[in-house]
Amino acid sequence: MLLKFPIPEPNRMKTYRIAVLAGDGVGPEVVHQALRVVRAAASQHQFDLELMEYPYGTEHWLKTEEILPDASFEEIQKADAIILGAFGDPRAPVGLIERGIIGRCRWDLDLYVNLRPIKLLDEKFCPLKGKSAADVDMLIVRENTEDVYVQKPTYQNQGTVDEIAEQSMRYTYAGTERIIRYAFEQAQARPRKHLTLIDKANAVRAQDLYTRVFAAIAEEFPAVETGHLYVDAACMRMIESPESIDTAVTTNLFGDIVTDLGAMLQGGMGVAASANLHPGKMGLFESVHGSFPQAAGKNIANPIATLNACVMMLDYFGEAAAAREIEGAVAHLLRGGGIRSLEVGVHKTDEIGDLILDQLAVGCE
Ligand code: IPM
Ligand code: MN
To answer: Are the C-beta atoms of 143 and 210 separated by less than 8 Å?
Structure first.
């Protein structure tokens, strides 16, 4: 039978539902710029974003005493991914909002992987002498659901000279096994196939669990070369010979610390990104930097860190072409001088967004 009219193309547009919690300080402005860029890439690559935006953060808590209401938390779990801006503000008690939002998402959604790439794009952004982009290319795999972070502090004889404050470093076999296995898989997929275990098992003997599990899983990955550094030596090594580290796996607390150090090697907090993952279930994407309350609303924070986190989200969705395109535009601007500096205040937040959008458009001509 001849059809009189052409059959319309089925709508192949894929829509990703993203829960956005822009948060405190500079969070809203950097998230806004990052999402402008992601939207532009999406429209060029035939997918769409449906944003579910939430107002939580210190301002909301001050007004309502709500941190992250259960109903919203339920809803957020139905999204395809979560984007966080930044949390923390001196008007709230230390850690209240950070633990109540970032912590709750990481722990209650069991996002056990905190993936933090450290990749230098141009040597002018590295504070080390004589190191080039090829020397700084690491992937830190930070355990994200255990350790001292999730233990209750106790205070005996609080406020007296006999006070004893305690919060323990606690690791389970299951928690250790899954993060080390994930790190081996990541190391195996990278060209150098090298994995370093970072711990402090000489002083914190509980971390002998990491030592043993790492050795056992290494047997299953004969293609991956392994190494070990105590965390103090790892900090030294990252400065002295960053090229000696490829993939590294470490505990929650040490991962927090070494990734701030690593962020500086790639140009600072303006660019460092992270993915919090429960592989196959959920991904939460955020910058490594904090809320920088003094800069809030001043249009001076760098949105590239949040944008880099969004690039990790696109890879998580399998939108590799869009991810590479954004990555390419940012790399072009950083290497070619379109973005001269990553120091706060050199470029405006929205100016960086504009530059990247223009570059994306050029790339598509
Ligand atoms: C990070 C942050 C958090 C952490 C804070 C805000 C609790 O520093 O994501 O690195 O320590 O994990
Ligand atoms: Mn940190």
So the answer is: no
- 236 C-beta neighbours (distance < 10 Å), count: 12
What the block records as the tokens of 298 is 């001043």
Q: Is the pLDDT of residue 299 over 80?
A: yes
CA dihedral 180, 183, 189, 191 (to 10 degrees): -110
Q: What is the pairing mode between strands 113-119 and 137-143?
A: antiparallel
Domain range annotation of the chain: 15-109+281-365, 113-154+162-268
Catalytic residue, candidates 80, 260, 315, 354: 260
Query: What's the DSSP call for residue 83?
Result: E
The model's pLDDT over 117-144, given as tens digits with 9 standing for 90+, comes to 999 999 999 999 999 999 999 999 999 9
Strands (DSSP E) found in 89-182: 113-119, 137-143, 154-156, 164-166
Q: Which atom of ligand 1 sits closest to the CA of residue 260?
A: 10
Q: Token pair for residue 100?
A: 């109540």
pLDDT at residue 79 is higher than 90:
yes
Residue 13: predicted pLDDT: 84
CB 354 near ligand 1, within 6 Å: no
Tell me which DSSP letter residue 95 carries.
Answer: T
- Residues with Cβ within 8 Å of residue 356, at least 6 apart in sequence: 37, 307, 326, 329, 330, 333
Top-level CATH class of 15-109+281-365?
A: alpha beta
The Cα–Cα gap between 362 and 327 comes to 14
Fold agreement (15-109+281-365, 113-154+162-268):
yes
Q: List, for residues 6-30, the tens digit of each pLDDT value.
A: 555 555 689 999 999 999 999 999 9
Catalytic-role residue among 54, 112, 199, 200: 200
Q: What is the CATH number of domain 113-154+162-268?
A: 3.40.718.10
Q: Is 149 a catalytic residue?
A: yes
Active site residue 315: no
Report the candidate in 258, 272, 309, 313 with the shortest Cα–Cα distance to residue 143.
258
